[in-house]
Amino acid sequence: MSFSYLEGNIDFKGQELANRITKKLITFGAIISFLVGFLSDNILYTVYTFAAFGLLTASLVIPPFSFYKKNPVTWLPKKSKIEIQH
Q: What's the mean per-residue pLDDT of the chain?
């Protein structure tokens, strides 16, 4: 059984994009959660709203979607070994 779909191989630009998405959604979620809790005067609504934004963020940044893999890293070719003689 292969679990290759669970491997999180994304490129460096994809990591940067995931980081930006995370920061923006968590910040937006905190603001919305505060407003929901303040307007409803219920701390549980604040917690539930923020948890929903946390789950949304996790569902967008944890799976290695194809838009995180647009810029693959090209590695240098392997150098041949040089023997050192004493």
A: 89
